[in-house]
Each structure stands twice: as structure tokens, then as C-alpha cells.
């Protein structure tokens, strides 16, 4: 940096999470001309971090730090430390002398989805939530390319009254068009189930989070990934992705026709996905009734249990079939769909 002598041995270090909007003058040679990207740790890094934070904790036989590391992509070092601390607290509350896989699972749920709430009493609302969550699971499982179901639960967490957890693919950074579209279908499964089972007049506000997610995903497919009939164009400047004002300016710089074409393409993707979701629900009503019956009784159902019942009534696409042990030893942090 200007102003320092060449022999003082002073190194100036700065950090930012928005390098894309820095003034180019700041990055010229002789200034901040070395950039080091520091991402969240990979699986080996997570394993090493877990070894550090597990040194003062006892674990039951069968708890593997390597498996925990594989299940927690995207977790920072602080997240991993918090995970083990939460698990230790849960084990103590349950009168255990060592942390089991159950405490690890519950801690991951708590970190990702929030605190556990009070279970709903039996009634129409609980039944509606059950059908909503099973709708996510059925539509996801029957749509080729969708992530596998890890579990379905009616135990509230955070603002969600129920959750369906999916196991992301091994490489979440490379996602195909088929996988993205399948996620939209799965995301609309809850609303589709409400409409088919209870009638259009009885659909609820519970799908608000789902609709926000699938709309955002459909827009990304059209404007960022070039996965629509508009063509392989990137219609949104990278600097506008996380800046509201920049997004508004980018929108205003488009022609009116292009903006309308984008809206039409997003709507077409969503409409097509919703029709597929409605078809899955209508064609698998008997399976859904059986799954919901079990879910209402147990309140939490593993992915294996769910697939075992569904496969009695419908054929699961080959690419969506998983080994029976996947739900208990998943390789990724599950992603929730909630109501």
C-alpha cells in the first residue's frame, strides 16, 4: 500500500464478502493485489475441526466424527463447535453419560431449523400439516433427479409446524437442470397436497416459505443459469445478485419485452412443476393416506420407512432409489421443506 516504506515489513490484510463491488483502484498492483478466497471447510477440514472440539467430550460407540463431517457441508468451524456443544447439552438433559447419534441428529436439526416446539394436538390442523409434509416427500421422491427423503416429522421447529428433510447430492455445487426442476416440483408438493386432499378453498398460508423458495429458484433458472426457452443467457449481472438496488437497476435496464419474457418463463416453469405435483398427489392418494396414518401415529418417520410404504403403491424412479441405510448415515446436511 502507498505510504509504507519498502523495508518496514508491514503487511496490510483486509477482508470482505463482497469483493465483486470493490473499486478496481483498490485492487491495482502494489495495493490489494493478492486475493485469497477463504471458504467454509471441506470434509477433511471439518473432520479436523471436530477432532479439536471433541477432545473433552465422550461419545457412544458408533458415533463417527468422519460421518458427522460428511453430514455437515456448509458448516463453519463455529457451527461445528456449537453442534458438539448442543449435543453434549442434550445428552446431559437426557441423563446420558455419552453423546449418541440421536443427540447429533437432534443438534443438527436444531441448528438448521431452530428450537423444537410443542407438538400439535390431534385435529384438522395436524392432519393438514401431515398431508402437506407427505406431499413434499411424495412429489420429491417420484420426480426424477430429486434428493432423497431423510425424514418427515410433525415436530415443530422454529416457525415451521412440520418439516420434510432431504439429503442433498454429493456435490451441491454442480446441480443439473433436472435436479433444479425436481426441487421446484417437490417444493410445490405441500400446496398441491392441500388442494387435492382438502379442496382449493382450504389451501392455507403454510406454503408461503415454499412459494418464496421455488419462485426464487425458477428465477435463477431463467436469469442466471440460462435454463429456459429464452436461451443460454445470463440476464442478471453478478454484482446485482445480493444487492436490492443493483437488482432494480438491472431490471430497469432491460427492455420491456425481455422483462415480460422472463416473467413468462418463470411462470411457465412454476405452472409446469405444479401440474406435475398435482398429478403425483392425485395418482398416489392411497399411498399418501397410509403414510399420513403412520406419521400421525409416530410423529416422525424415517426416509426408509417412507420409501417402504410408498414403494408398495408406486414405483420409485431408479435414480431416486437409495440404499436402506442412507437415512441413518446420510452424507450431507439435510435440507428442509416446511409448513
UniProtKB/TrEMBL annotation:
Which GO cellular component terms are attached?
Answer: chloroplast thylakoid membrane
| Domain AAA ATPase AAA+ lid: from-to ranges | 63-105
Chain ranges of the Peptidase M41 domain: 121-309
* Regions of compositional bias (Low complexity) in chain numbering: 323-339
Q: For this entry, list what GO says about its biological process.
A: proteolysis
The record's region (Disordered) falls at 317-339
Please tell me whether the keyword ATP-binding is annotated for this protein: yes
Provide the GO MF annotations for this entry: ATP binding; ATP hydrolysis activity; ATP-dependent peptidase activity; metalloendopeptidase activity
UniProt cofactor(s): Zn(2+)
- InterPro entries listed in its UniProt record: AAA_lid_3, ATPase_AAA_core, ATPase_AAA_CS, P-loop_NTPase, Peptidase_M41, Peptidase_M41-like
Protease among the record's keywords? Answer: yes
- ATPase AAA-type core domain residues are 1-39
Q: Which UniProt keywords apply?
A: ATP-binding, Hydrolase, Nucleotide-binding, Protease, Transit peptide
Annotated family: In the N-terminal section; belongs to the AAA ATPase family.
Name of protein: ATP-dependent zinc metalloprotease FTSH 8, chloroplastic-like
Q: Which organism is it from?
A: Raphanus sativus (Radish)
Q: Taxonomic classification, please?
A: Eukaryota, Viridiplantae, Streptophyta, Embryophyta, Tracheophyta
User: Gene encoding this chain?
Assistant: LOC130498617
Amino acid at each position: 500500500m502507498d505510504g509504507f516504506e519498502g523495508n518496514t515489513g508491514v503487511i496490510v490484510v483486509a477482508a470482505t464478502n463482497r469483493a465483486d463491488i470493490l473499486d478496481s483502484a483498490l485492487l491495482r498492483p502494489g495495493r490489494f493485489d493478492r486475493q485469497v478466497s477463504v471458504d467454509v471447510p471441506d470434509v477433511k477440514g471439518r473432520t479436523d475441526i471436530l477432532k479439536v472440539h471433541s477432545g473433552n467430550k465422550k461419545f457412544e460407540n458408533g458415533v463417527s466424527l468422519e460421518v458427522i463431517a460428511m453430514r455437515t457441508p456448509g458448516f463453519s468451524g463455529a457451527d461445528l463447535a456449537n453442534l458438539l456443544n448442543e449435543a453434549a447439552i442434550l445428552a446431559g438433559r437426557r441423563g446420558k453419560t455419552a453423546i449418541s447419534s440421536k443427540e447429533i441428529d437432534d443438534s443438527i436439526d436444531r441448528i438448521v431449523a431452530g428450537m423444537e416446539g410443542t407438538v400439535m394436538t390431534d385435529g384438522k390442523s395436524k392432519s393438514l400439516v401431515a398431508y402437506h409434509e407427505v406431499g413434499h416427500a411424495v412429489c420429491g421422491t417420484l420426480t426424477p433427479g430429486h434428493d432423497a427423503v431423510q425424514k418427515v416429522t410433525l415436530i415443530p421447529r422454529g416457525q415451521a409446524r412440520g418439516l420434510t428433510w432431504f439429503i442433498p447430492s454429493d456435490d451441491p455445487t454442480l446441480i443439473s437442470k433436472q435436479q433444479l426442476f425436481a426441487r421446484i416440483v417437490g417444493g410445490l408438493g405441500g400446496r398441491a397436497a392441500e388442494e387435492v386432499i382438502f379442496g382449493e378453498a382450504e389451501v392455507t398460508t403454510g406454503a408461503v416459505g415454499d412459494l418464496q423458495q421455488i419462485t426464487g429458484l425458477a428465477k435463477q433458472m431463467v436469469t442466471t443459469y440460462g435454463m429456459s426457452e429464452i436461451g443460454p443467457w445470463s440476464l442478471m449481472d453478478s454484482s446485482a445478485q445480493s444487492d436490492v438496488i443493483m437488482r432494480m437497476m438491472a431490471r430497469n435496464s432491460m427492455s420491456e419485452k425481455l422483462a415480460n419474457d422472463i416473467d413468462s418463463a418463470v411462470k411457465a416453469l412454476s405452472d409446469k412443476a405444479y401440474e406435475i405435483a398435482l398429478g403425483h398427489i392425485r395418482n398416489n392418494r392411497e399411498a399418501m393416506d397410509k403414510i399420513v396414518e403412520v406419521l400421525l401415529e409416530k410423529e416422525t418417520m424415517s426416509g426408509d420407512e417412507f420409501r417402504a410404504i410408498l414403494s408398495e403403491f408406486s414405483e420409485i424412479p431408479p435414480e431416486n432409489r437409495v440404499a436402506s441405510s442412507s437415512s441413518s448415515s446420510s452424507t450431507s446436511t439435510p435440507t428442509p421443506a416446511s409448513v
